[in-house]
């Protein structure tokens, strides 16, 4: 005796297409005379083998028309194979659809007996298990009403209850559980696992891959009657899903191309700005089959994360960008578009001729005061704060002093902050600094996030990969383009929100920085990617040495030269490159007013740092763009 | 032999299904009607009255107690017509079910003929009522009527299997058979006495119309009150089994192809 419960061996099932259409004598006679009665065969199943052991749960997956139901019918004995053999050991619940054979006119009570006897049970057997069935299906109240008045969920419940009343050796379940509610589905799963434990073998068909994964331990994937794959459920489902996603994308792209030919170049979205927000949004939309056009004012894509390769070094043209996030989804997303190194940002602060580690941590404190333990450092800071005796800080200086004490403030905060704002710390409001994180461990990692790194080969590739296959126009000003063309349905605006409204409520203010980039003919200029200059006498706030963003590349191929950027804080005037929004009361209010205007623009989405007047880290921008795209697609 | 034993075993396994199907047919037939089962009796009674009014003047001289003569033939004919018509549609009508369950397909045909037989036995009540009303004599031979019913049941099953099979492949058979049953009604001495036909017609009907065998036997038992002639009696059984063999053979040969055509 074979050890398999179901043993389908090279099963082929053939339908004769031409014959199927002839079912009256006249047609038959005509075809006979015309000699058109030839075979036009169609193989619904082509050489499929399946061996199922006792107690296994097999999922059959595949698109519509792939032969799943045909295969089940063959196993149930409804269809005879044209070639090959099918052996089933033990009794099979020979019903490939739950509740098949329910008669709408009969009551549930009558149908239970009817269905039970259809499954080959005797009347006595059904008498014995009647209550059990009614209880499982939970239809006691409606037992004597005709089943045509039942909802599809109730019918499925009843069908399932009848089919599983007696542990069959082989149970076939075809697309049945999708109609029931959560509760019932749970109940069914429990019953199925009970049966499986009791040695029942399950053959399960569903389009819902999630359910197949949950219920089954094995799966077979049919495609156009042929077996594409069979084995462990996870493997087969993964492969199937991958294929489905691929086909889906292809189909959408084809549809899009067709629409394009029909209607000319009409875009669903006009994305203004090719920064991270715009690029992620456009990518997501394209993946969903929408068509986007990306406009970029600058001659290159990428917004401020743009990096440019100069003499083999990727120069961060708009300031240092270090990717860090705690959001694993964002981290995985961004890694799809570029490989990342394991760069960790550990800046150095230079105060006159002294060097300190940043952020403020035990290395910093140790260097400042020669302390060794966190307790000593804390005591020192507390002592300094107590000496000052500041109760209500009136300005930034007093605020900072009350938080970190004299030494840290004087050497590491004061000069840097004054250069940043172009004003004396005494003249700056206290609220700019709410807290100053002090770290009492020997850890120079500037960020606290789980994941950190720099794309190997620069940031620009991320944008280029995101925008792959998407129409992009660089050197194009949206406001001029808008006047000329109307070939878009919706706008995603990532530029300055005040500019969009032609500054009619006034200018929003920004902090801006200026870079002086130069090539230096020595192997290393400062030996670190970022060095902050914290005394006020040095005009720049920091120096970036770009090669150290990719230290692994430098280690593998040392260069004789280096490229550095000196970063100067500059007061912003309209027309300058905006960098950081100023979140003071005045600007926040103005932004709120603009936001109100934006709310009235029905077909415009404002996004990103400038569109939302908000300081965004790169990971937050990606998350925001993904969320917005998702929201858009739901509409 | 083991194949035969297996068949019997399967049939036994599904005996309750046949019961359920038969009781469904009967229940559904009269559900939502006020008189319910009484219609099984009332219906032939009403038809009999109509036919009596129309035809009694025509044949009154030849036949005493025309209503009983008519009804005794009519009850059998109705059974033939109804059961074979229903059996013909039993496979195609259950297409949805047959595509989804692996139940022996003949069960449905068998159940249809059976439920019609039960219906006929019930409508025997109409015959009894008419006999009472018209003051006809009751003979002990009346009690032998199940023999005729059984013969006809076997015959109708055989014919039903054949028609069911044909109907799967050629739906036209429904219309053709409709014409055939009408002709059959007039070629069987039900509303008229056989003697009124020309000699050669009488011969053809006597020899080759299966219905003649059953109607004749039934009338002998119920109307005339004598035992049927041997020729008619044995002929009835032989015809029934020949029909059954033909029907079953055709059905068995083609049943695996049904699924492709329904």
TrEMBL record, chain A:
Name the UniProt record assigns to this protein: UDP-galactopyranose mutase
Family to which the UniProt record says this protein belongs: Belongs to the UDP-galactopyranose/dTDP-fucopyranose mutase family.
GO molecular function, one term: UDP-galactopyranose mutase activity
Known cofactor(s): FAD
Pfam families in UniProt: ABC_tran, GLF, NAD_binding_8
Lineage: Bacteria, Bacillati, Bacillota, Clostridia, Lachnospirales
Species in which this protein is naturally found: Jingyaoa shaoxingensis
Key words of the record: ATP-binding, FAD, Flavoprotein, Isomerase, Nucleotide-binding
Alphabetized SMART domains for the sequence: AAA
Domain of life: Bacteria
Enzyme category, top tier: isomerase
UniProt xrefs under InterPro entries: AAA+_ATPase, ABC_transporter-like_ATP-bd, ABC_transporter-like_CS, ABC_transpr_TagH-like, P-loop_NTPase, UDP-GALP_mutase, UDP-GalPyranose_mutase_C
EC code(s) of this entry: 5.4.99.9
Occurrences of domain ABC transporter (ranges): 30-249
Keyword set includes Isomerase: yes
Automatic annotation (TrEMBL), chain B:
Domain of life, source organism: Bacteria
Any Pfam family matching the protein: ABC2_membrane
Membrane topology recorded in Swiss-Prot or TrEMBL: Multi-pass membrane protein
Xref: PROSITE patterns: ABC_TM2
Subcellular location: Cell membrane
Record keywords: Capsule biogenesis/degradation, Cell membrane, Membrane, Sugar transport, Transmembrane, Transmembrane helix, Transport
Residue span(s) of domain ABC transmembrane type-2: 35-254
Predominant localisation class: membrane
UniProt keyword Membrane, yes or no: yes
InterPro entries: ABC2_TM (IPR013525), ABC2_TM_bact-type (IPR047817), ABC_2_transport (IPR000412)
Presence of the UniProt keyword Transmembrane helix in the record: yes
Residue stretches spanning the membrane: 34-59, 110-133, 139-163, 175-194, 232-251
Family, similarity comment: Belongs to the ABC-2 integral membrane protein family.
Listed name of the protein: Transport permease protein
């Amino acid at each position: 005796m074979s050890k398999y419960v179901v043993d389908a061996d090279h099963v082929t099932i053939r339908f004769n297409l031409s014959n199927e259409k002839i079912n009256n004598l006249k047609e038959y006679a005509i075809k006979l005379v015309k000699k058109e009665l030839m075979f036009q065969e169609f193989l619904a199943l082509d050489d499929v083998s399946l061996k199922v052991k006792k107690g296994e749960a097999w999922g059959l997956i595949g698109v519509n028309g792939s032969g799943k139901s045909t295969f089940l019918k063959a196993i149930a004995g409804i269809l005879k194979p044209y070639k090959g053999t099918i052996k089933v050991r033990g009794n099979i619940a020979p019903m490939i659809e739950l509740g098949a054979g329910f008669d709408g006119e009969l009551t549930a009570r009558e149908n239970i007996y009817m269905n039970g006897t259809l499954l080959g049970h005797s009347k006595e057997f059904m008498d014995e298990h009647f209550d059990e069935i009614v209880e499982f299906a939970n239809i006691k109240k409606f037992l004597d009403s005709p089943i045509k008045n039942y909802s599809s969920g109730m019918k499925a419940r009843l069908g399932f209850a009848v089919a599983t009343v007696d542990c069959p050796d082989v149970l076939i379940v075809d697309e049945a559980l999708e109609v029931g509610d959560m509760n019932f589905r749970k109940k069914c799963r429990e019953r199925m696992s009970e049966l499986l434990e009791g040695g029942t073998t399950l053959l399960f068909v569903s389009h819902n891959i999630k359910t197949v994964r949950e219920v089954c331990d094995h799966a077979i994937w049919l495609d156009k009657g042929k077996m594409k794959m069979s084995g462990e459920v996870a493997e087969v489902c993964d492969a199937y899903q991958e294929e489905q996603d691929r086909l889906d994308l292809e189909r959408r792209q084809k549809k899009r191309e067709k629409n394009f030919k029909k209607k000319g170049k009409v875009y669903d979205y006009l994305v203004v700005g090719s920064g991270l927000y715009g690029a992620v949004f456009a990518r997501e939309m394209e993946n969903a089959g929408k068509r986007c056009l990306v406009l970029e004012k600058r001659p290159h894509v990428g917004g401020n994360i743009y990096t440019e390769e100069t003499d083999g070094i990727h120069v961060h043209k708009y300031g240092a960008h270090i990717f860090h996030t705690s959001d694993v989804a964002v981290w995985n997303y961004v890694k799809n578009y570029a490989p990342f190194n394991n760069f960790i940002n550990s800046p150095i602060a230079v105060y006159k001729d002294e060097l300190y580690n940043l952020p403020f941590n035990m290395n910093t404190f140790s260097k400042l005061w020669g302390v060794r333990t966190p307790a000593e450092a804390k005591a020192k800071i507390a002592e300094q704060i107590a000496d000052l005796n500041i109760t209500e800080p009136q300005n930034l200086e007093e605020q900072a002093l009350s938080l970190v004490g004299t030494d840290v403030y004087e050497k590491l905060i004061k000069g840097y902050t004054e250069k940043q704002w172009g004003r004396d710390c005494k003249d700056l409001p206290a609220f700019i600094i709410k807290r100053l994180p002090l770290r009492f461990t020997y850890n120079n990692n500037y960020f606290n996030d789980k994941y950190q790194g720099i794309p190997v080969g620069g940031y620009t590739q991320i944008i280029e990969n995101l925008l792959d296959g998407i129409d992009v126009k660089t050197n194009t000003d949206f406001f001029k383009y808008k006047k000329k063309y109307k070939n878009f349905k919706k706008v995603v605006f990532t530029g300055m929100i005040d500019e969009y409204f032609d500054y009619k409520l006034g200018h929003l203010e920004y902090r801006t920085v200026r870079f002086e980039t130069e090539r230096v003919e020595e192997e290393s200029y400062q030996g670190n990617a970022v060095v902050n200059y914290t005394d006020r006498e040095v005009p720049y706030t920091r120096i970036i040495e770009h090669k150290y963003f990719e230290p692994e590349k430098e280690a593998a191929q040392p260069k004789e030269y280096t490229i550095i950027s000196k970063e100067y804080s500059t007061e912003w005037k309209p027309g300058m490159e905006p960098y950081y929004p100023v979140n003071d009361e005045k600007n926040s209010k103005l932004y709120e007013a603009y936001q109100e205007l934006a709310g009235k623009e029905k077909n415009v989405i404002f996004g990103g740092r400038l569109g939302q007047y908000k300081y965004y880290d790169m990971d937050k921008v990606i998350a925001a763009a993904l969320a917005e795209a998702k929201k858009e697609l739901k509409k | 032999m083991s194949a035969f034993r297996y068949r019997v075993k399967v049939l036994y396994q599904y005996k309750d299904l046949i019961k359920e199907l038969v009781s469904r047919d009967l229940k559904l037939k009269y559900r939502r009607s006020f008189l319910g089962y009484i219609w099984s009796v009332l219906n032939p009674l009403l038809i009999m009255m109509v036919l009596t009014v129309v035809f009694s003047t025509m044949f009154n001289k030849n036949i005493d107690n025309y209503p009983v003569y008519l009804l005794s033939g009519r009850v059998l004919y109705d059974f033939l017509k109804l059961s074979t018509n229903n059996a013909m549609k039993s496979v195609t009508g259950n297409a949805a079910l047959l595509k989804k369950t692996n139940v022996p397909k003949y069960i449905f045909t068998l159940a249809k003929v059976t439920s019609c037989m039960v219906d006929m036995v019930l409508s025997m009540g109409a015959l009894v009522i008419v006999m009472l009303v018209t003051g006809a004599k009751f003979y002990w031979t009346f009690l032998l009527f199940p023999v005729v019913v059984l013969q006809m049941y076997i015959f109708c099953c055989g014919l039903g299997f054949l028609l069911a099979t044909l109907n799967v492949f050629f739906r036209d058979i429904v219309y053709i058979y409709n014409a055939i049953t009408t002709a059959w009604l007039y070629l069987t001495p039900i509303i008229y006495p056989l003697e009124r036909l020309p000699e050669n017609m009488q011969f053809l009907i006597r020899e080759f119309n299966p219905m003649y065998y059953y109607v004749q036997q039934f009338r002998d038992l119920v109307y005339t009150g004598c035992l049927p002639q041997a020729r008619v009696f044995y002929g009835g059984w032989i015809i029934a089994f020949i029909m059954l063999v033909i029907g079953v053979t055709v059905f068995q040969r083609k049943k695996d192809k049904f699924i492709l055509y329904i």
